[in-house]
């Protein structure tokens, strides 16, 4: 693994140099095929857990046709988005896909889809791509983003503790084609827990939970000592 070191000097009462170690990012999370036609496949993924200390500047997308050797991969594109439509595939053939994250240092190990995907016009049961854990400080705004796929387009809803979440002055659910965002303003510890997103269409049903942890405010105590010297 290659690394660079970023150095900065901060001048205050004491001149202390600081160092930031920069390396390749982690692989993307949850790479999945989310849609397909007779000549294409839509592949989507989540950002890596760690970017290696440097901003990710692209994702390398490759595919492999069933029957090729393990080392035979075809690079399709480098994109900045978290999904891509891979065109020009052969109808009836099976493919698997992999995605690697890239930063200024280099590329991560690739993350593959599970098994092979047959290229054909088809209905698809819902799939959800969403973070599994979110930690945020009390008083901040919680934003849980999800991507929802399926054919026909699924309907979906949010739950907490097996009860549907209800919009309020603090809580809102934004919906758009293939996506939903849960927003809670001014969060407190009572907002901690498991939130469940459920998606359903005529081909099936899917659900995924995200564990939200709200950290309480920290109290910092500063102790001042006064030394009186009697001469």
Automatic annotation (TrEMBL):
This is Uncharacterized protein. SUPFAM superfamilies: Fibronectin type III, Immunoglobulin. It comes from Callorhinchus milii (Ghost shark). The chain crosses the membrane at residues 210-230. Residues 126-213 form the Ig-like domain. CDD domains: FN3. It comes from the Eukaryota. The keyword Flavoprotein does not apply. It holds the Pfam family fn3. Residues 27-122 form the Fibronectin type-III domain. Keywords: Immunoglobulin domain, Membrane, Repeat, Transmembrane, Transmembrane helix.
